[in-house]
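Hi F.,

I've been meaning to write this up properly since the lab meeting, where we talked about keeping a consistent format for the predictions we share between groups. The idea is simple: the sequence comes first, exactly as it goes in, then the C-alpha cells exactly as they come out, then a line or two of notes. No screenshots and no reformatting. I'm using this chain as the first example so we have something concrete to point to.
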Amino acid sequence: MVNPTYAIVDIETTGHSPAKGDRMIQFAVVFVRDWKIQSTFSTFIQPEKKIPFFIQDLTNISDKDVKQAPIFEDVATEIYNMLEDCIFVAHNTNFDLSFIQEEFKRIGFPNWKGKKIDTVELSRLLFPTSYSYKLQDITLDRGIELTNAHRADDDAYATAELFIECMKEIEKLPIQTLEHIHKRSFHLKYDISSLFFAALQKKRMQVIEENLDFYKGIALRQKKIQGPPVESSTFYPETKNHKRLFLSEGLKDFKERNGQFQMMDAIWQTLQTNNELAIEASTGLGKTLSYLIPSYFYAKQKGKKVLISTYTSHLMEQLHDVEIPKLEAIVKSKVNVAILKGVSHYIDLHRFEELLRGVDESSDDTFAICQLLVWLTRTETGDIGELNVSSGGQLFLDKVRKNAFSIKTSEVNVHDFHSYALAQSYHADILITNHAMLFTDKNRLEPLLTNEITSVVIDEAHQFVRAANAREERIFSFTQWKYVFGQLGTRDQGQLTSSFANVLKHHGIEVDGSFQELDRVYTRCSDRFDEAIQSLVKNVQKTSSARSHSKQTILLEDLTLDYDLLDEVYQNLQKWVTIAQKLLGRLEKSQVDSTHAEKLITAEWLYWLNEIKIKTGEWVDIFLSSRHDYSVWIELDRRSIPGSLHVYKKPIDSTHAVNEIFNGLRGNVGIIWTSGTLAVPGNSRFIVNQLGLPESVQIKTFSAPKDFYQGANLVIVDDMPDIQHVSQSDFIDAVADAVIQTVLVTEGRCFVLFTSQDMLRKTVDLIQDTGLLEGYMLFAQGMTSGSRMKLLKSFQRFSKSVLFGTNSFWEGVDVPGDALSAVVMVRLPFSSPDDPVFKTQAERLRKQGINSFSSLALPEAILRFRQGFGRLIRSSTDRGVFIVLDRRIESKSYGKEFIRALPDIPLKKLSLEDMVLDLEHWYNEKA
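Output, unedited:
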C-alpha cells in the first residue's frame, strides 16, 4: 500500500465570507509523506480589491505585496492539481477548505473531493491539557517555531510540523488506547481513523514493554508512591546571619528583606507555643517562603506534617511547582509534598469504564472519551481540572467525576486517583490543599486534620470567608431540575424508567405494582413542581413594577410563598427515592447475571437516583429550611420565564463554619493566617473579625522594603464625568476613550478592572466598534471563552494585549515584569447596594444600629482596591501606573481612605489629555 501524501494548507484572506466578496490574498501548501516534509509551495494572490487595514496589520500583507500577484483564476488549475489525490490538512480545515471550495465554485471549477484532517481536532485529542489550540499557542506549547503568525507560508509550515508531532504522539500511545480510540474515530468529524489504524498496525508488529498500569483494559500511567520523608536537618536558622546564609546559598536572586526575616521568626515562635497568629504580608516580602521555611523545620523537628491551605487550584499548583523547589534548594533536601483536593476533582474510573463499553450519547461524548483515554496514559493526578474540553465535553466530565456515591471496590481502589493522593499524603512533609477541602474535612472518612498535623497555614486568608460562604451556598436552577426530570420520565415515555423496568422484568422480578406507584409519584411530583415554579413566578411579577428591567433580583423574604405546595414537592421526591431505592435493592438480590447493556442501565439508574437525592436536599435547604444567617433570592429574566429562573441561598456570616474547623485545633497546633490584604485604614481586624477569630489572636504586619514600589505611580483622571450625574452610556463613552488612549500609549499590557459585567461588556463592545484597537488582542472575562487562567496566559503571550475583568477576576492574579504596564480601575469597587448578600448584611447591621457603609461597604471596597493595585507591582524591578477613573476618590470624603490604603507612591491628579502626555513621557523613558 502506497503511503498517502498529506497537503497541509493555509490561506490568508480579506475576510471570512467569500459570499460577501472576500477573496484570498495568499495560498501556501506543505506536502508531507512518510512523516517528512517533501516540498512546499506558496503564492500571493491579487484579490482585486483593497485589503482591509486590520487584515494588513494582522498578516503583514499589504496592497503593495499583492499588486503584481496573479489573480486566483491564474493559479486555480495548479492549486487544484496539487491537492488532487492528497489528504487535505489544515489548522481549522472548516475555514480553509470551505473558502477554497467557494473560490473554485466562483470560477466554475468542480468541488475538490477527498479526505480531510483538522489539526485543531487532532491537537485537542492528543494534547488534552493544552490551554489553547490556536496555532501560535499550540505550536509554542510544542516547541515548534512560528516566526510570522498569520502568514500562510509560515503557518502552513508550522502546521505541517504540528501534524508530524501529532503522528509521533499517536505512535507513543499504548496499543489498548489506540484500539479504543480507533473504534471511536469513525464517529469523529474528520478522517483521522487511518492515522490510528496505521499506528495500531505498527504497534502490533512490535514487542514493547510499556511501564503502564491497567484498569479493565484502560491504560494508565504508573503511579509511584512517595517513600518515607528524607532525613534532613531540623535546625531552624534563628539568627539573621544564619537566615542570610541559608537563603543566599539556595536562591540565585536572593535579596535580603528584614520584613521577611521578622515574619519567619514570628511564625516560628507561634508554632513553638501552639499559638495562633494573623499576618498581613505585603507584595514583595516573599510571603510564601516566609511561612514555608519555619513550618517545614517545625514539622521535621516534631516528625509530623504541616498543612497549607490556599484558595484556588492554580495557587495550589503554583505553590507546588514554583515555591517548593525554592524550599528544597534552601534546605538542600528533597521535600515530600502531597496535593489534596476534594473528591469531585478526580475521575471515577469505574464509571468511566462503564460508559466506555456503552454507546456514546453524542459526538461531544465520543470526543471527550478519546481525550480522556489519551490523558489517562499521562496524568499523575487524575485531576479532571487538567483537561481542556468543549462545553459539551464538560457535560461528559461531570458524569465521570467521583462523588460521595462512587462505587468503592478493592479493584477500583488500587488504581483510584483520590486514594492515590491520600496514599501520597501518608509520607508527606507538607500537605497542600484548598480552603473548600477544609470545610468538608469533618465529614471525611480519612480527615486531613489528624494528630499527624503539627501546624496549619491558611494562605490567602481573606478568601477563607468566601470559601466558607461558598461551601454552604445552594443554587436552584429550573432548567437543571427539568433536565433531571427529563432523564427519568415514566414507563410510557420511553426514558430511563422504562429501560430499568425492562431490566427488572428480564430478571423475573414482578414490578408492575411498584412501577405504577413510581409513575404516579413521578407525575404528581413533576406537576407539583411546575405549579410551585408558576407560583414563584407570579409572586415575582406581582412584586415587580411595570417599569422593572427585564432581569430581576428579588429577596425571597419579600415574596409570599405557598409552603404547603413546596412541601408537597419535597414529600413526593422522598417517596420517589424510597420506591426507586427498593427496586434497585430487588435487582441487586437477583440471581440472574446482567448483560453489559443492563449493567449500564442499572448504573444510570443509580446515578440519577443519587442526583434526585441531592436535588431533594437542595429543595429543602433553599425553600423549607430556616433562612436565619442566610440571604436567599430569586433571579430571572422576564424575556425567558421560567427557563431563566434561579434561586440562590448564601450565608451572610461565616464565623460558625470557620470555628467548627479550628476550635478543636486551637491550643494543640500552631495556626497561621496570612494574606496580602487583611486590614483597612482604621480597622486592622476587618477580615479577622469576619473569620470569627478570638480577640486574643494577634495581627502583625510585615512590609516589603520601601524601594519595592519605586516603579509605581498613582494617577487620578480628574476630568472624567461623574457617573451619578450623567447617563451610563455617556460614562461608558468616556471610559472607552480613556482605555483606548491608555492602551495606545502603553502599547497594550493593560488590565482594565470593572465592578459590573454589564459595564465591562458594553465598554468592550464600544471599543471594538471604534476599530481603534484593531491591532491589539482584547481578552474579556465573560466574553472571551476559556477559564480565568487561560485568559491570563493568553494575555501574557501577546505584547499588544488588554485584559478586561471584574472584581472576581483580578484577585490572586500574578503578572510580573513587562507583561503588565498599567492597571485601569474604572470605578471604586463598592458592592452594588442591590446585591442580595450585601443588602441582607446591611439590613442586619442597620437593625443593630451600625452604619453599614463605614463598617461593611467601605472596608470591602478598600480591600478590593488594594487587591487591584496589587496586580501591578510583583517584583522590585516592575514599573507600572495605577489609573483611577472614578472621581469619587477625590470628590468624596472617604476617597482619602482608598489612597491611605496604598503604599507611599507618587500621586498625580491629571486631565485625560495630560495623563496621556505624562504616560507617553513615562513610557518612552521606560523604553
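Notes:
The chain has 36 helices and 25 strands.
The mean pLDDT is 88.

If this format works for you, I'll send the rest the same way.

G.
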